[in-house]
C-alpha cells in the first residue's frame, strides 16, 4: 500500500517529524524561513497532507495547485489563515492545535502587561545607553498592576489563563465575550460586562479574541476613545482585531497611556511603523507560544491530527466537521 505524502515546508520538532515518518512519506524542508511561492506550489502538487504554521495562507487559489490534498494541519490555535469554506467545499479536513499553548501564551501576555506597566524595555535602554547618571524620585515612574482593573476581551482558554494570573495579583477582573462563562465567573471571580463598560473602567485592556469577520477592527477609534487616559492596551491575539492606525493616533496624541503588542496588522511589521518609535509601546515579534516545550507540543498535536485525518479517523481538533 502506498503511503500518503505529507508536505512540511519548514522546520518542526524532530519528535513530530518522526511520528509522521512512521506512517507517511514526508516531503520535509529543514528551513526556518518561509518557502518561496514557487517551491511551495510545487510541494503541494503531490501532497495528501499539508502541515503548516499560520504564516501560510491557504485559500481557493492555493488549493487549485493541490489536487490530492486531504488534510491541512495548522500548527497554531488561530486559523484565520485558512479559508474554511474553500477547504470544506473540496472535502479537505482542517485542524489546529489549541490547549497546548494556552499557559505559555498567557505567560507572555502577562509579561507584556508587566513590561508595559513598569516600562521595563524603556528602562533597560535607558541604562544601556548610559543615560542613568543619578537616581531621581520621578525616574521611570510606571503603573501599579496589583489591585488594578484588568479587562479581558475574549474569555476563551487563554483569556481564562490570563485571568488566573490576574487573580494572583489581586486584580479586579472584567471580561467581555460572545457568551457568558458562569463557571469562570464562579472559579475566578471575573465579572461579565459590555465591551464599552470594560473599556471605560479598565486600567489594562487585554485583547484575547480570535480574528473573525465579526472581530476584525473590533477595537477602533470609538473604542479607544472610551479608555482611560492612562490605560494600557495589550494585544496578543491578532493584529487586525485592533485598528492599527487608530491605535497609532491614540498613542501619539497620548489619549491612552501605552500599549504592549505581540501582533500587528502586517507581519513582520514595516520598519517605519510609528508604533516602533513610541517609547510607551512595547513591541514583540509574535512570540506568544515561543518556548521550546510548547512548540514541540504544538507540532506533535498537529502531527497526530494529520495522521488521524489521513487514516480515516476524526482528528481531535477538527475545524470543519461539516
UniProtKB/TrEMBL annotation:
Q: Does the keyword Ribonucleoprotein apply?
A: no
An example of a Pfam family matching this protein is 2-Hacid_dh_C
Source domain of life:
Bacteria
Task: Quote the Gene3D superfamilies the UniProt record gives.
Answer: NAD(P)-binding Rossmann-like Domain
Q: Which SUPFAM superfamilies match?
A: Formate/glycerate dehydrogenase catalytic domain-like (SSF52283), NAD(P)-binding Rossmann-fold domains (SSF51735)
Keywords linked to the UniProt accession: Oxidoreductase
Q: Which residues form the D-isomer specific 2-hydroxyacid dehydrogenase catalytic domain?
A: 8-320
Task: State the GO CC annotations.
Answer: cytosol
Q: List the InterPro entries hit by this protein, alphabetically.
A: D-isomer_2-hydroxyacid_DH (IPR050223), D-isomer_2_OHA_DH_cat_dom (IPR006139), D-isomer_DH_CS (IPR029753), D-isomer_DH_CS1 (IPR029752), D-isomer_DH_NAD-bd (IPR006140), NAD(P)-bd_dom_sf (IPR036291)
Q: Which GO terms describe its molecular function?
A: glyoxylate reductase (NADPH) activity; hydroxypyruvate reductase [NAD(P)H] activity; NAD binding
Q: List residues of the D-isomer specific 2-hydroxyacid dehydrogenase NAD-binding domain.
A: 110-288
Q: Which family does it belong to?
A: Belongs to the D-isomer specific 2-hydroxyacid dehydrogenase family.
Cited PANTHER family: 2-HYDROXYACID DEHYDROGENASE-RELATED, GLYOXYLATE_HYDROXYPYRUVATE REDUCTASE B
- Protein name listed in UniProt: Glycerate dehydrogenase
Task: State the organism of origin.
Answer: Brevibacillus borstelensis AK1
Amino acid at each position: 500500500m502506498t503511503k500518503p505524502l505529507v508536505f512540511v515546508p519548514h522546520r518542526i520538532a524532530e519528535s513530530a517529524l518522526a511520528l509522521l515518518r512512521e506512517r507517511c512519506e514526508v516531503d520535509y524542508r529543514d528551513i526556518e524561513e518561509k518557502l518561496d511561492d514557487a517551491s511551495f506550489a510545487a510541494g503541494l502538487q503531490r501532497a495528501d497532507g499539508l502541515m503548516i504554521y499560520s504564516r501560510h495562507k491557504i485559500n481557493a487559489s492555493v488549493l487549485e495547485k493541490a489536487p490530492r490534498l486531504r488534510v491541512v494541519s495548522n500548527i497554531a490555535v488561530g486559523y484565520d489563515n485558512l479559508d474554511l469554506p474553500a477547504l470544506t467545499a473540496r472535502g479537505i479536513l482542517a485542524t489546529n492545535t489549541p490547549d497546548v499553548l494556552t499557559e505559555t501564551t498567557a505567560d507572555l501576555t502577562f509579561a507584556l502587561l508587566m513590561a508595559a506597566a513598569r516600562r521595563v524595555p524603556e528602562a533597560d535602554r535607558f541604562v544601556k545607553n548610559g543615560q542613568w547618571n543619578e537616581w531621581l524620585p520621578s525616574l521611570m515612574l510606571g503603573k501599579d498592576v496589583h489591585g488594578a482593573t484588568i479587562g479581558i476581551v475574549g474569555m476563551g482558554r487563554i483569556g481564562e489563563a490570563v485571568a488566573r494570573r490576574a487573580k494572583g495579583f489581586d486584580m479586579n477582573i472584567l471580561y467581555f465575550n460572545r457568551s457568558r462563562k458562569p463557571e469562570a465567573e464562579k472559579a475566578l471571580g471575573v465579572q461579565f460586562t459590555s465591551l464599552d463598560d470594560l473599556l471605560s473602567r479598565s486600567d489594562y485592556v487585554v485583547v484575547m479574541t480570535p480574528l473573525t469577520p465579526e472581530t476584525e477592527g473590533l477595537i477602533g477609534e470609538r473604542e479607544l476613545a472610551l479608555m482611560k487616559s492612562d490605560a494600557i492596551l495589550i494585544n496578543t491575539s491578532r493584529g487586525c482585531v485592533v485598528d492599527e492606525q487608530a491605535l497609532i493616533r491614540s498613542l501619539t496624541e497620548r489619549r491612552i497611556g501605552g500599549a504592549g503588542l505581540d501582533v500587528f496588522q502586517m507581519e513582520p511589521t514595516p520598519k517605519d511603523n510609528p508604533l516602533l518609535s513610541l517609547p510607551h509601546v512595547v513591541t514583540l515579534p509574535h512570540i506568544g507560544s515561543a518556548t521550546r516545550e510548547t512548540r514541540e507540543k504544538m507540532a506533535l498535536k498537529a502531527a497526530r491530527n494529520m495522521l488521524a485525518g489521513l487514516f480515516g479517523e476524526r482528528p481531535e481538533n477538527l475545524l470543519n466537521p461539516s
